[in-house]
Every structure is written in structure tokens, then in C-alpha cells.
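hey can u check if this looks right to u? its 342 residues, i copy pasted from the old doc so theres a chance i mangled smth
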Amino acid sequence: MFDMDLQVREASPVLSESDLALIDVMQEDPRAPWAQIGQTIGVSAPTARRRWERLQADDSAWVTTHVGWNSGVVTAIVAVQCRPGAVETVIEAFVTHPRVVTIAEITGDHDLMLTVLVPDVHELRRFLRLGLTSHADVARMRTMLVTRMFLDGSHWRSGFGTSSRQVEARDGSTSPSASLSPALATAISILERNGRAPSSELASALGVSEAHARRFVHRAVRSGHIVQRIDVQLEQPRWPYSLVLWMVVPAGRLYSAAARISQRQSVRACAALAGGSANLYAIVWLSSLAEAPDVEMQIVQDGDVRVVERSIMLHYSKRMGHVFDGSQRRTGHVPWVDGAAT
């Protein structure tokens, strides 16, 4: 005999078209003035603010801030196979780890997919050896490094706003000369907790004027040292499924293939990889599982792109620092900067 949880969960609020239009506008600049946001969607500044505060209050949407790909950090995608019956134990062991920014349960040969952000490769090696591989319930793992981030969640648009999806051509590779300066770490630490933190708070922490603080954050975002985006609730009916594709592309065609794939509105992330069998990785949002074969066929329509592995994401326990329970409700946040400083 076994127990079944038959408790009826309260349904998450459905994002309306006007909600998604607001989110699309805020994706352009999550720290934009309310007057600017309101003008773009045709409402007053107070109305735009109230709508956003409602979305935040019921955890339908929020601002996510994290250290950027150009800040000198090392990003690793780690696929983990757990011992039978131990998936939850492994999740519990690493969900509060600052460097493990994302934990997703997936189908396929591995149980979990982790995104790990660390200051350098030495820190990654230490985490893998002393953290993951030393855990008794981790049976096997596969690690690949992100060499270039072509597309991330900050580029996503629902299509209901006035702005179109723009994939910037800026370099998304890790710069060896870049470093996480004290000022950058301070700004990220504040913005991780409140993506729309007042300029006065940033200025006080940085020891500069409010105007200087605004310029500093703006430059950091534009240069890819800080990433800000609007995230939406996990449980929503428009795109309830995520398809993960691991692909192989000839080196000479990698960038052109990534650019083509990244232009698809349903593609949530696209990155170049090194250190494994695949050199290109993508996450695609689906409205139904039946779409998966057609989406994959369209992505590989260029004969040089070959899918070597595919998975469906079953659940996020953590996404870019934000923690979720088994009912897909956001329950907390684990700051990255605090862990990177240890």
C-alpha cells in the first residue's frame, strides 16, 4: 500500500494578454520608470505599477537578477544521475548551494540538470570533486562548460507586447580579463534581492551619487556583466513544457546555426558548449508535448545540426537562484554573491 496526496492545489493565476504585454515591456528594461512603462502599454504610471505589484504579490512574475556571462564567471551545465530513489535527497543537498543556480528534474538518462556558476575553473573543480561526486547518492554525472551564451531568459518575449524579440549581437563569451569587481558584486547583491531597488539604495552601498549608480547599473547590464529579466510562474498554461536539446554542429557553422535557432520565439536559451559530446544546447518552451517532434524537425532543418540527446523538463526545484516547492510555488531565493564571496 502507498499513500497518495489527493489534496486539490489552488490553481495559479493565469497570465492575461495585458499581463504579458506588461511583462514584455519590462523585459526591455526591468528598471525602467513607471511613466515610460505605462506610456508604452497605454496606461498611466500608477496603473502600470499597480499591475506589476499585483503580479509580484501572487508570484505570477518577478525580476530575476544574476551575474552576467561577461563578468568572468564560469558556467557549467551538469547532468546528474542519482541512485534509485535518491533524487529528492540530492535536490535537498544542493538547492541551497549558492553556486548551483538552477536545478531541474528531467527525463532521459539523467535525473537532474544543474546550472553551476562559479568565479573560476578552480572553484568549479573543487565543487565537482568535493560537492557533487562526494555525495553518496550521486551515481554519475556529465559536465559541460558554456563557452558562449547566445540567448538567455532576458531575450524572451511572449509576443503580446509592442516590442519584438531582439537577440543582441554582443559577445556572450567569457572574457578572461573580466573579473567580479567589488562594485559589481555589491550591485548584484542588492539587485538579486530587489531587481528594482531604488537608485538611492544602490548609491549608498556603492558610495557614489544616484546618477552615477544609475549609469553604473545601465552599463553593467548593457555589457553583459549583469543580467536582468522578468520571470513568470512555473505553472502556466501557455507554455507548460520545456524541451532540452543537446546538439552537434560543425565548428565552422556553430554561430550561424545558433543565430538561426535563437530567432525562434519559443527558444528560451541557446548556448555553445565544450567538454562533452554536444557543442550546442537549447531549451524550447512548448504549448503541448505533441509539438516536440515538429519543433525538433524545424530546428535541425539545416542538415549540419544533429540532435544527440533530448529531454523534457519535469520540474524546477530552483531557477536562477529562486527556489520552488513541489507545487511549483516560489518559496525563497538563494543569493549568488554571498556564496561567491566565500
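The radius of gyration is 20 Å.
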